[in-house]
Structures are given as C-alpha cells and as structure tokens.
Design goal:
By secondary structure, the chain is of the alpha/beta class. 38% of the residues lie in helices and 18% in strands. The protein has 8 helices and 7 strands. Strands 1, 2, 3, 4, 5, 6 and 7 form a 7-stranded mixed beta sheet that branches. β3 and β4 form a beta hairpin. The chain starts with 6 loop residues before the first helix and ends in an 8-residue tail after the last helix. The mean pLDDT is 88.
Length: 195
Amino acid sequence: LILIPPKDVLKAFMPALFKEFYPNTVLIIESTEVQMESPSALDKQSMCYSSYKSRPTIKCLVGITPSGVIAFVSQLYPGSTTDKEITVKCGLLDKLERGDEVMADKGFLIQDELANIGVTLTMPAFLKGKKQFLVEETEKNKKVASLRLHVERCMERIKNWHILDRTLPISLSPVAEDMFITIAALTNFHPPLIS
C-alpha cells in the first residue's frame, strides 16, 4: 500500500502546477517525530533526545507523490538522528532514478547525496549572507512553499489518527514502526489531498 508509483502513473495524476514548474518531481519528503517515553539507559536517552522538540522522540521520513499519496515511509530512528542521516540510511536513495526530482524543506542538506545518483533536489533558496532574496528566488520560494504545503497536510492526516497523540511508552517501541506504517497506509485511503 506504500510504494513509489511508476513514472506514467505519476505523470497521469500529477497536478497542473507540478506539471508546469516541477514535472520530474517524484516525492516531496518530510520528517516527523513522535514523542516517546525517556529510556532508562543514559546513552539511549541522549540518542532519543530531539533538540528540535526538546524531548525524547522517534523520527521517520515520509515521502508523498505530487498528487498527495504516501509513497515512502522509512523505519523509525532515534530523535537525535538528522534528516540527512535518515535519508542516507533508510534506503530512499535506492528507490530513486536518474532524472528524478525530490522536493524538500531547507533542513534537508542532501544535495550531494542526490546529485551522486543523478537526482535533483528542489528546496527553498537560502539567504547565504545576503540581506534579502532576489525577485526570482522569492518567486521560487513561494512556488516551492505552496507545493510543499501538501506534505504538511498529509502529515496532519497521519497525526489525526490520534494513536500517536500521547507519549509512546517504551513497552511499545518494538511495534512502533509497524504502527506508524499501518497508520500511513490507512491514510492513503482518505479522499485525495489534491484534486
């Protein structure tokens, strides 16, 4: 229920804005974190501590197609794992092909890893020491942000199952990955995100 569709299927269901501006986009990726109970072992506590959330978490990478279907879910990683580390370790790079395009937020510093396999990364521009963006950069940022909004809406759908609202007990850590994948698969049964 969770797989990257063939290119002809991606193209057939690709929204008009993607066709016009980013026609080679295969996935929009985002990471998400779920709060978990603090492990008793000190080394595990530091591994699971998310500086972004300021608490122990488990984290995974989710990829949706331009039409809003969940097409990739990584295994779960401790909260201290960076988005780049997850992207490299989770096997996503093996599923992409030369000429593909991946859309991500600024936190995904994976340009080199994607370039090595012939995949383009589309993300908002950085200021890089400038005081303001050029007009072209501002327009690109607006387009990318409006298209990336769909992955945020998809993450909201996943969290709306409310199974992961409360702190995940350590006793459920052996099945947490299965829980998340099942929730993601069930989310694909919702009506389309993008019409």
